[in-house]
Amino acid sequence: MVRERDQFVEDLRWAADFDPEDPKLGLQWTDLSSDRISRRHFLRLAIATGALHYLMPLLRPTPAYAQAGTPGGELKAAWGVREFTNLDPAFINQVVQFQITSNVLGGLTHIDAGLVPRPDLAESWEVSGDGLTWTFRLRRGVKWHNGDSFTADDVIYTFNRTLDPKVGSLHRSILAPFEKAERLDPFTVRFVLKEPRASMLVKITERSSGRALTIVNRRALEQMGREYTRRPVGTGPFRITEHRLGERIVLEKFPDYYISDRPRLDRVTIFNIEEPATLASALQSGQVDFLTGNVAIPETIFDRVKAMRDVVISEADDPGFQAIFFNLRKDKQQKIGKASLPTDDLRVRLAMARGMDRDDLIRRALFGRAIPAFGPIPRAQKLYFRDLAASSPQRFDPDQARRMLAEAGYGRGFTIKMVVAPITRRRGEIIADIYKRTLGITVELEVVDFPVQVQRFDQGQFELLQIGSGGDPDPDDSIDDWFWSGAKFNTFGYSNSQVDALNAAQRETVDQAKRVRWVQAAVDLIARDAPCVFLFHGTDSVAFRRNVRGFVHIPSLRDLDTVTVR
Amino acid sequence: MGRESPRTPGLLAAREGILVQEYLVRRILFALLVMWAVATLVFLMMRAIPGDPVRALVGFEGDPAVVEQVRRNLGLDRPLPVQYVRWLAALARGDLGNSIWNRQPVRTLLLEALPRTLSLAMFSFLIAVSLALPAGIVSAVRRYSLADHALTVAAFLGLAMPDFWVGIVLIIVFSVFFQVLPAFGYEPVSRGLWAWLSHLILPAVATGTSFAAILARMTRSALLEVLREDYVRTARAKGLEERAVILQHALRNALIPVITVMGIALALLLAGAVIAENVFAIRGVGRLLIEAILNRDYPIVQGTILVIAAIFVCMNLVVDLLYAVINPRIRYV
Questions:
Q1: Are the beta carbons of A271 and B182 separated by less than 8 Å?
Q2: Residue B132 contacts residue B212 (beta carbons within 8 Å)
Q3: pLDDT of A47
Q4: Among A204, A484, B82, B131, which has the highest number of CB atoms less than 10 A from its own CB?
C-alpha cells in the first residue's frame, strides 16, 4: 500500500510543472469529449491515466501477492516456449522474446500496467507543437552491464544500427518517419521526424516492444558477435549470465541498476518447457514457482493450474486480436485460381461476421479465457476501446445473418477453405462447426506449418485465413499495421479511402481526444466493411506460488524487477 | 556382408587383419559417399517443400524490403547451384553454417544437443537391454509358464503405451506425487553425478520401455529357435548344465538378430528421442531437428541430418564388426 501511495506522490511531483493547484490534474471529462484539446491536456491525460492506475489500489484492497516481500533469493520460472530464439532487439519477432529483454535491456520509455509510457532511460522529454521534434533528456549515471556508462552516443548508435541495411534489423521500417537523430550533449538526444507519430512513446521508444530503439551496447556487439543474440548486454535490472538455448536462461541481479532497490531478487532461472503437461507438473512439484505460457497459460492446463493449492493466477487483457480474414484482392485468379468468391459480396461477409457465435467459440476453443472482438482495438488499450457487443455491425445476430445470406443468394450455404496452422487447428474446427450450424456454410480446413501460413497470408493465397495480432499496446499496432490500403499486413486487399484518411490523421495527431475519436471512427468503418470477422481478444495470464510477491502485471510483459520470493 | 569359412588358426590370422583393414577402408569410403548423397538429398528436399525460412523468421514484423534485405544477408537470394556449392565448400572446411532462425553456428547447437542425446540414448539403451535380455531369456526357457505370460503381457503393454503418455504418468507419480525425481530438464555430469542421473531416469525409462518390449520379444523368439537346434541337443546330451547350455551355447547364437535390432534401436535413440525430449524439456538432437524443419531452418536441418546419417553409418559398421565377435565364423571380405 505504502509503495503505491509513494508512487502516486512521485507521479504528482512529476506532474508539478503543469498546474499543481489544479484539482484532478486539470482534467475534466469535457476535455475528453470536446473538439479542442491542447497538448497540455493530452499530457495531463497521460499522467492522469497513469496516476489513476496507481490510485486504484488505494480504493481496492491490494491483493496479498502484490505486496512486497523480503529482497534476495532466487526465482525459478518456466516459460511454455521451445526457445528464446534471438534476444538481439533487431531480430526479435515474438512477444516472449521481449518478455525476457524487458528485464535485461532499456529503452527511452517503458509502459506501465495501464500501457502508459513512463520514463526509463529518458528522464523527461518534450515534443514541439507540430509534433515533429522530440527532445529526450537522458538519465545520468546509468551503467551498462559491462561497466560502460550510458550516454546519448548509445541512443544514436542504436538508431543508426537499426537503419543500417547490413544489419538487417526487422524493425527498420518503424524508423521510416524519422529524418534524423542528433546528440545535443552527452545526455540530450533530439529526433526530427518527417511526419508526426502519435505512437512515439508507447510504440517506438518503448523498451520492450519498441525494438527499433531498444538501446544496445556497441562495444558488446562488436566483441561478442553472434553471442549477443543469446546474452545481450543492456542497462536493465538483470543481466544474463547463462543462456543454454532451448533449455534455460539465468538472470542475475545487476547491482548497478539505476533504481537502487531493484531488482529485489538476486537471481532468476528461466526454463523452457514447451509441453503443457510438464509445465503444469513443474509448478505443482515445486521445481518452479512462476509459470507462463507462450504469453498466456496454455488453455489445456489452465484448470489444473487454477486448482493447485498455494498458486495464484494473475490475469490481464492481452493487447491483440484474432480474426478470420477474407481475400478481397483483385488478382484472386492468379493467386488462388478463382476469379471470385462468395465472400466478395459484402452481405456474405457481414452474415459471416454476424453468424459467428463468439461466446461459443471462446468457451469451446479457449476454455472461456478471452473476450469477444468486434474490432482490432483490444480492451487493454483502455483509452480507445469501446464495448461494441450490442452496437457493432459485426454483433452476433444469427437470424439476420441467415436473412442476409439468403438475400445474397447463398441461403443454402456454400463451401470455402480456411488456412490454419497446427496450433490453431482446434480453433479452426470449432469455427467450421459454428458456421455449419448457424449458416450452413462448409468451412474446409487447410492445415499448414506456420511458415507456410505466413507465406500464404503474405502472398494472398487463401480463401479464408485465421490469424491475428499480439503485443499491441498502441492503436497503430491494431489499425496502422493492418487496415489502411498500404498497411504492412494488408495483404488481403482491403481498401477504404475514409479509413485511410482517418488512419493517417490518428497516426499523426498529438491531440489525444481527436485520436480517440478517429481511431473509433475507423474501427466502425472497418467493422462495417468486414474485411475480416473479428473473433476475440485473448487473456494474458501468469501463475505463481503465494511466496512470489510484488509481481506487477503489465499486459503481455513479465517484468520481474519488483518480484520477491520468501 | 559376411561369409562363413572353415576356421583355420595360425597363418591366416595375419591375412585376417589385412582383410579387416581393407574392409574398413572400403566401408568408410562408402560411408562418405552415402553421407554426401544424404546431404545433397536433404539440401534439395528442404528447398522443394513449401514455406520460406526468411518469411518465417521475419514473421509479422517486416515489410517486403526488409524481407529481401534479410534474404540477401543470408545469401538465400543466390541461385540454388551457387548456394549448394557454397554449402559444400564450407562443409569441406568443417563449417556447418549458421542457423537462419537464431543465428547460432549449427556446430555449437549440435555440440550442445549431442551430450544430452548421448546421455539419454545410452541410459535408455541400458534400461532397454537390462530389462529385455533377462525377460527374453526367462520367457524362452520357461515357455508358456506364468512368468512367460506375465512378461508377454508386460511387453505388449510396453509396446502399446505411447511414450509421451508414459512420460507424463512418470512425471505425475515420481515428480508431483512422491517428489523424488525432477519433472524436466537436463544437467551435465559436471554439475554432479546425481544431478545428471536424476534428470535422466524418467525420460530414459519412458523411451527405454518400448525398446525393451521389442528387444524382449526378439530375444525370446530367437532363443526359442536356437534351442531347437541339434547342437543344443548335443550340448545337453553330453551332460552340460542347463545354465551353460543356455548362456554359452544357445544365447550366443540367438544374439545375432537381437544385436541387429539393438543397433537399429541405439541408432534411433542417438538420432534423438523426440517424444521424451519434448515431454521432459531436454533440448537434444531430435527436438533440434524437428524445430528446424518446422521453421524451415535449412542449415540446421542439413547439419543435423548429416550427423544423424554419420551415426547410422557408424552403428551399422559397429554391428557388422560385432557379428564377428559374437560368432567367430563370420568373416569380412
A1: no
A2: yes
A3: 42
A4: A204
Q: How far apart are CA B221 and CA A223, in angstroms?
A: 62
Instruction: Decide: A182 and A192 in contact? Cβ < 8 Å.
Output: yes
Which member of A93, A165, A168 has the closest CB to residue B59? A93
| Facing residue for A281 by CB, picked from B53, B57, B172 | B172
Q: Does A163 touch chain B (CB under 8 A)?
A: no
With beta carbons less than 8 A apart as the criterion, state whether A550 and A264 touch.
yes
Cα dist from A323 to A352, A401, B206, whole Å: 12, 18, 40
Q: Nearest 10 degrees: CA dihedral of A20, A22, A26, A29?
A: 150
What ipTM was estimated for this complex?
Answer: 0.84
| Neighbouring-strand partners of residue A323 | A467, A534
- Amino acid making up residue B124: S
Q: What is the CA radius of gyration of chain B?
A: 24
| Residues in B touching A448 (Cβ below 8 Å) | 50-51
Of the candidates B111, B113, B79, the one whose C-alpha atom is nearest the C-alpha of residue B94 is B111
The whole-angstrom separation of Cα A75 and Cα A94 is 23
Residue at A369: amino acid letter = R
Residue A11's pLDDT band (cuts 50, 70, 90): very low
- The least confident of A44-48, A67-71, A266-270, B100-104 is A44-48
Residue B109 predicted with pLDDT over 80: yes
The helix or strand, by DSSP H or E, that contains position A181, with its residue range, turns out to be strand A178-185
Q: Are B319 and B263 in contact (CB under 8 A)?
A: yes
CA B266/CA B81 separation, integer angstroms: 36
For strand A415-420 and strand A464-469, is the pairing parallel, antiparallel, or unpaired? parallel
Please, which residues 496-515 of chain A have a Cβ atom closer than 8 Å to chain B? none
Q: What is the pTM of this model?
A: 0.84
- pLDDT mean across residues, chain A: 88
> What is the average pLDDT value for chain B, to the nearest integer?
87
H helices then E strands: how many in chain A? 17, 20
| CA A253 – CA A52 distance, rounded (Å) | 30
| Residue in the block written with cell 538455448 | A245
> In a mutagenesis test of the B interface, which of A81, A85, A94, A283 is the best target, namely the one with the most B β-carbons within 10 Å?
A85
CA A163 – CA A157 distance, rounded (Å): 10
